[in-house]
Amino acid sequence: MGGERVAPTASADLLRVLTCGSVDDGKSTLIGRLLHDSDLLYEDHLAAVRKDSATTGHAGGQVDLALLADGLVAEREQGITIDVAHLYFSTPRRSFIIADTPGHEQYTRNMVTGASTSELAVVLVDAARGITTQTRRHSLIVNLLGISSVVVAVNKMDLVDYRQDRFESIASAVRELAAALGLPDPVCIPVSALHGDGVVEPGANMAWYDGPCLMEHLEQVDAAVHAAGASGIVGGRLRLPVQLVIRPDHRFRGFAGTVCEGTLRAGDRVRVEPSGRTTAISRIVTFDGDLEEASTGRSVVVTTSDEIDIGRGDVIVDPAHPPQRARLMTATIVWMAEADLAVGREYLLAQGGQTMSCRVAEVMGRLDVDALESVPAAAVRLNDIATVTVRTDAELIFDPYTQNRTTGSFILIERSSNATVAAGMIEAAAPAAAWEAVPGATLERQRSSISGAERAARLGQRPATVLLTGLTGAGKSTIASALERELFERGRTTVRLDGENMRLGVSRDLGFSSRDRSENVRRTAELARLVNDQGLIAIAALVAPSAAVRERARELIGTDRFVEVFLDPPLEVCRARDRAGLYEAAERGEIRQFPPVSAPYDKPADADLVLDTSRLDVDACVRAITAWLEAGGFIGSAETPEP
Amino acid sequence: MTERDRLQRLEDESVHIIREVAAQFRKPVMLYSIGKDSSVMLHLARKAFHPGPIPFPLLHIDTTWKFSEMIAFRDRMAGEIGFDLIVHTNQDGLAAGINPFDHGSAHYTDVMKTQALKQALGAGRFDAAFGGARRDEERSRAKERVFSFRDGQHRWDPKNQRPELWNHYNGRVRSGESIRVFPLSNWTELDVWHYVGANEIEIVPLYLAAPRPVVERDGTLLMVDDRRFRFEAGERPKTRSVRFRTLGCYPLTGAVESTAATVAEVVAEMAAATRSEREGRVIDHDQSGSMEHKKREGYF
């Protein structure tokens, strides 16, 4: 210590900084160095670190500056940082809040947490090791969370003899990475946190470097611009999410909240979402007196000129630029729980005062950090970044995350534990799947003059749809053919709807994403319903991997004439039957979204029939199905073919 | 951005947090320690619900060893501001005569503060409790969340905290569980002092220098606040100009020599300070990481 401490009133400005780097990049040491060399440490804190350095430090007898940043006992003993730590310091120019987040891959969730409130990111790269998977992951997250201001500190320059060529080659790799991510060129600064070069003082070892030291850069970078960028605010569209209603007595009713975009003025016409009612702001009330206007970030209470119903979760907005409203959205989520994401399961979605039930309807892919592209995902696990569609029970009022960090984000909460399991950033409202499409209002169903009873009398059967579901190699097509033959021999009239045949014609425009698979099931179900309406028996053979989609097919066709048959041999048997080599191709990544290798298959929990085709031969399976149809009165027995 | 803007930004964030608690929880309570941070937190709560009243009670854990000026200040504030005040003392501890002189700071703190706090929170069936702690105070606090989850035994598990994203706070708890809320998380000691000055917030006069009777023991200046003070051999109270950087139980709280008699003078003195504020607290020095151990047990 030593020297004069800075005048506390001089630092007027506040910058929130995220630091990220790999476990061994020396991040904690860098933060300690920033504090130490800026004379910002209290003597007793430093004394405590000196004492701890002797027992648990990893700096070989020197004062271990990393101990200034690492807080918890357990992690000090392990020599790693494991959580988000917030550190505070001020220089004459600026106050800083540093969110120090861990570098280990397993703790991505903490970095996302720190990034969600930061305005600038310092990414550490080890000069000796260069860009690693961690660097890519951190850059990706920084970009994903909308932090446009990035500084890359190339640390441990002492280990590469402070060589300029080494720094330049890393800086060039950093620029390539930024370009791949669509980020503007980050500022690269060579430093040695251990010895102090380039952190607060230039030091004597890198005369070739003429840019700013890290601290100098942090003090000078335009915080206002970066704060706006970090808030993701593109314009002055008013957004005031209502937190609660202040109603001390019958004379006063005000709406409290924090303006998260735009400027609110007394007298402004505003619109209230979701009701869509418009009114005017009468007063902006604060403890220190009424305000004429309140800009982004202000926590205020407003009153309105009309007595309209406004409550928590409503959003007061600019009527000319209202936010979006939807029940189905595409979003990027970061999964933060030990248990995998369960597609179709109910979670709570929370965004400020808006809380509603939701389900992840579909996982479109997982971000591959190395390739920086989306790859198919059979599951979404801890620390995965996935693109999904989310379906909510009520309409969510939102803006895309790139336009507003507050109204564009959400968290998912697991209902039984109340744990926060995911962070979400909304991309857009998703077009409703064809399942949801509403036919034109003028359309009318054209009725047939032939009754169901007449058809049953003519055909000697009652219509039904048999859905054969199971993995590739389970025997769906084989059994569908055999069943068709058996029913034909008995004089019954059927239509076979094989998935592969569907894709050669009716569904030739569809791929294998879960959305397209869902649409293929819908088209098959619509056809099955048509032929059932004509009195025929439909035999559908489809993988149909989603339980939710199979349920919708059942509803569409009619529960009382729908038979779900789950063909369930062991997976090895399916693979052994797979002469086309589809499983291996899927494992090599040549075929994407192939259940169960790279996409989920939801096993039916309550199928009408479960047939293990490795133990039952084809005839036995067909007998089981025809027995079921006989018992249901759809067909007669083999001896008396008509029911 | 001016100094005023920076304090405004901190105030707006804290007000947002306080309102979020009022909106999300069934029965919140605000811990009131009578210190400067509590005074700022109380002021922020008044701002959050203006023109309405503060919609939850304040809770003071009275160890019976607080500075007498603190108690007088507390009761006067409750009357002037008009908040609902709950005062709780661990009656079992009191009956057992637990005191800071005979039982050591660790045991005394556990019985009269930590246990007392758990009793009061349990008795009130509170599901959220505000505390005035700041992350810059102590190293284990740096990792604390704004909404800090506690299990049914009021325990803090640093490995099992909810990630806190944007300003979407997750306050959902099951019966018996609770959340400790720290609206001043992002404030520094200097921010608090500046805010006290800018908003003319009344604070206990002990924060300002005045001639007071003190004894010096192991380098710590202890104030002789009442007749219960135990003098050690050779100790005599001397009148010295002192102030306190933090306030707690008088036998456990060290004073600093100072002539700063106004908030502005305190701020100016701090600019030259080289020692952190918790240093005056005997409790933190038992062992490195001791605050973390206490928090796991339920200390605030």
Structure description:
The complex is a heterodimer of chains A (643) and B (300). Chain A is of the alpha/beta class and 643 residues long. Chain A has 4 domains: 8-231, P-loop containing nucleotide triphosphate hydrolases (Rossmann fold); 239-317, Beta Barrel (Elongation Factor Tu (Ef-tu), domain 3), CATH 2.40.30.10; 329-431, Translation factors (Elongation Factor Tu (Ef-tu), domain 3, Beta Barrel); 452-631, Rossmann fold (3-Layer(aba) Sandwich). Chain A is 27% helix and 27% strand. Chain A has 17 helices and 26 strands. In chain A, the strands form 5 sheets. Chain A has a 6-stranded mixed beta sheet, sandwiched between helices. In chain A, helix 5 packs parallel to helix 6 (133-144), helix 11 crosses helix 17 (618-631) and helix 13 (514-533) packs parallel to helix 14. The termini of chain A are far apart. Helices cover 34% and strands 15% of the residues of chain B. Chain B is α/β, with parallel strands linked by helices and 300 residues long. Mean pLDDT of chain B is 89; it is low at 283-289. Chain B is built from 8 helices and 10 strands. The two termini of chain B are 34 Å apart. In chain B, helix 1 packs across helix 2 (36-49), helix 2 crosses helix 6 (189-198) and helix 6 packs antiparallel against helix 7. Chain B has a 6-stranded mixed beta sheet. In chain B, strands 7-8-10-9 form a 4-stranded antiparallel barrel. Chain B has 2 domains: 3-193 and 289-297, HUPs (Rossmann fold), CATH 3.40.50; 204-285, no CATH class. At the A-B interface, helix 2, helix 4, strand 2, helix 5 and strand 7 of A face helix 1, helix 2 and helix 7 of B.
